[in-house]
Write a structure and sequence with these properties.
The chain has 174 residues and is of the alpha+beta class. The chain is built from 6 helices and 5 strands; from the N terminus they run αβααββαβαβα. The termini are far apart.
């Protein structure tokens, strides 16, 4: 189902997350217009993003919207009309666990100068609620060892080691 400007139906978001927002801030699904509100710049606080044009953003947004398994949420500073935090839940359909679903929490970032406002905690909490709402039996998040204490405070537990293989020639480092 296509929700025009929003990546997904905002009714999936719980009211509790909005109640924890400071004045003039809103938590909501990613919108097509967020390119102009600094979404890409916010992501660049996390990792290499590259030169993403507005057209590239729109095409990826529409692909994600059609797939129906991507849930990108943002926190917007309404006074500045800027995205100050974001996170993603990707829902994977499985055959194991009686054809269960697993939520993959990705790309958690709070813009520089916005830390200390509990935005990261709120994003994680909301993504975990989305995972439950979409029928996931578990959620997985990969992080660096430095970030383990933060994610443990958010209710996650260390369950193993991440392995990765990078594709030669594809940029992956800052």
């Amino acid at each position: 189902m296509v929700y025009s400007n929003s990546l997904f139906d905002s009714s999936l978001l719980g009211a509790s997350a909005q109640s924890s927002m400071p004045p003039n801030h809103i938590i909501r699904p990613l919108e097509l217009t967020d390119y102009r509100k600094g979404y890409i710049e916010c992501l660049a606080n996390l990792t290499l993003v590259g030169d993403v044009t507005e057209q590239m953003f729109a095409e990826s947004f529409e692909d994600m919207q059609r797939a129906g398994c991507y849930f990108v949420i943002v926190i917007e500073d309404l006074d500045a009309a800027k995205i100050v935090a974001t996170g993603t839940l990707v829902v994977e359909q499985k055959f194991i666990r009686m054809c269960g679903r697993v939520g993959h929490i990705e790309d958690i970032v709070v813009a520089k100068g916005q830390q200390g406002k509990r935005f990261g905690f709120t994003i994680i909490k909301q993504l975990m609620e989305l995972a439950t709402a979409t029928g996931c039996y578990k959620s997985i998040l990969d992080c660096s060892p430095d970030n383990v204490p933060f994610y443990e405070k958010c209710g996650l537990e260390n369950k193993g080691i991440q392995m990765a293989a990078y594709v030669p020639g594809v940029p992956h480092k800052l």
